[in-house]
Design brief:
heterodimer; A: mainly alpha; 3 helices; 88% helix; B: 8 helices; 2% strand
């Protein structure tokens, strides 16, 4: 859209210029008396022509002196100040970057050291826990073994006691059964001998 | 300007005394007056531009610094490291001519660069400076440049006069280039402005056609802005080239 407007403006300007060019002969016709009486610039008899050269030399010299001694050094001063400021700022930025890089490196080192230390602590704690657990297990096993041993001892005692009274109970039971079944009181020695042999056969 | 049915396109270049009797006695015309105005404009541009002296520049300061850098780079890139010494001179020359060219485009103003006496004086100043620097830096070797290296000695009687003529034509070409460009531009301005006035006297049809020269003058103004800068640049860069040859060992 904008390009079309530009093209249209160019076309219009072209048309106008072409019209103007075609009108040039007409313009020449209406200005038949265009004068050419010589160039005032070449009239060296005119004192102002040479006068302007003398004035021009002085003005140029003054301009040169003012520019070279005052105006241009001011620009140079500002430019050098800017260069200096930029260089100083860049130096500061470089130093800050170096410090930041060093801090990052230190941070990484500290992080690695802390990680290693933490890992060592964890390993140590785990090992201590493992040793404590093993010790505890060992103590518990020993205690349990002792208790088992005591229990077994008590059981053996109880069993011994129980087994010791088995023959007596069996003899009494056998005498009672014989008596109740036959109504005869069996001799105690006989019953005791029979119970004894039966118990021996069963390993009691 | 249009005077009756004639056009006096060269009348604009006539010099008249200003400041009355004092101007007459001091031969002070509008040309040196515009030189002073141009100098004041250049100095004001730099002084006002650099007044803040800020590390982060404003528009005017940036423009002043840009101009400084432009001429400095031109001088150093063209002349070499020795160009630093000639930088103020090239800067003065460029902006003196540029301001003169541009101030001459203002209505009721005067372009002092449209006078061959002024441009020739500037060109001779550059020419003399280059010869002085050449003789100071190169000594007698300066004259060896008039015999091209490697050329047969038998051609010396032909080549040396040609080289000398070519060397001597430098201020002529330098001055006429600037003078002719400025004169041509201002004459064309005057001619087309006069056409407008003359055509306007032909009634309705003339009024319509009179727009043409106005448009052409607008286009000419754009062209003259370009020419003004270009001629100042050409003058400055040729000065740098002559000085480079002068400082070359």
């Amino acid at each position: 859209m904008a390009r079309a407007v530009v093209y249209e403006n160019i076309r219009r300007a072209g048309t106008l210029l072409a019209s103007s060019a075609l009108a040039l002969p007409l313009m020449a016709m209406v200005a038949p008396g265009a004068r050419a009486e010589g160039m005032p610039q070449l009239d060296f008899g005119n004192p102002y022509v040479i006068g302007q050269v003398v004035w021009g030399a002085g003005i140029f010299l003054v301009l040169y002196l003012l520019l070279s001694r005052s105006a241009l050094p001011k620009v140079e001063k500002v430019l050098s100040l800017r260069r200096q400021t930029i260089e100083t700022d860049l130096g500061i930025a470089h130093k800050a970057k170096t410090r930041a890089d060093e801090a990052v490196a230190e941070l990484h080192t500290a992080r690695r050291n802390a990680l290693a230390e933490a890992q060592a602590n964890v390993d140590k704690v785990v090992e201590e826990a493992r040793l404590a657990a093993a010790r505890q297990t060992e103590e518990m096993n020993a205690r349990l073994a002792a208790e088992i041993h005591d229990a077994e001892t008590r059981i053996a005692q109880a069993r011994g006691t129980a087994l010791a009274s088995v023959r007596e109970i069996s003899t009494t039971t056998a005498e009672t059964l014989i008596h109740q079944l036959s109504g005869i009181a069996a001799p105690a020695d006989f019953v005791t001998a029979k119970v004894g042999s039966a118990a021996a056969a069963r390993g009691l | 300007m249009a005077a009756g049915s004639s056009i006096d396109a060269l009348g604009q270049f006539e010099l008249h005394p200003v400041l009355g009797v004092l101007g007459e006695s001091l031969r002070f015309s509008q040309s040196p007056m515009m030189m002073i105005v141009a100098s004041i404009v250049v100095l004001a541009f730099l002084y006002l531009g650099m007044r803040p002296a800020a590390v982060v520049p404003g528009r005017l300061q940036a423009a002043a610094e840009m101009c400084y850098d432009f001429i400095y780079n031109m001088a150093v890139d063209t002349i070499g490291a020795e160009g630093r010494a000639f930088f103020p001179f090239v800067f003065t020359l460029f902006f003196f001519i540029l301001a003169g060219n541009y101030l001459g485009l203002l209505p009721f103003s005067f372009a002092f660069t449209s006078h061959i006496a002024v441009t020739l004086a500037l060109a001779l100043m550059v020419f003399c400076l280059s010869i002085i620097v050449s003789l100071k830096v190169q000594g007698a070797k300066f004259f060896a440049h008039f015999m091209p290296a490697g050329a047969p000695k038998a051609l010396a009687p032909l080549l040396i006069p040609i080289e000398i003529l070519s060397f001597l034509s430098r201020p002529v070409s330098l001055s006429i280039r600037l003078f002719a460009n400025m004169v041509a531009g201002h004459v064309m301005f005057d001619m087309f402005a006069a056409f407008t006035i003359m055509l306007a006297g032909l009634g309705f049809f003339g009024d319509v056609i009179a727009v043409g020269p106005v448009v052409i003058n607008i286009a000419l103004m754009a062209l003259e802005l370009l020419v003004g800068a270009l001629q100042a640049y050409v003058f400055a860069i040729l000065t740098c080239i002559y000085l480079r040859e002068a400082v070359a060992h």
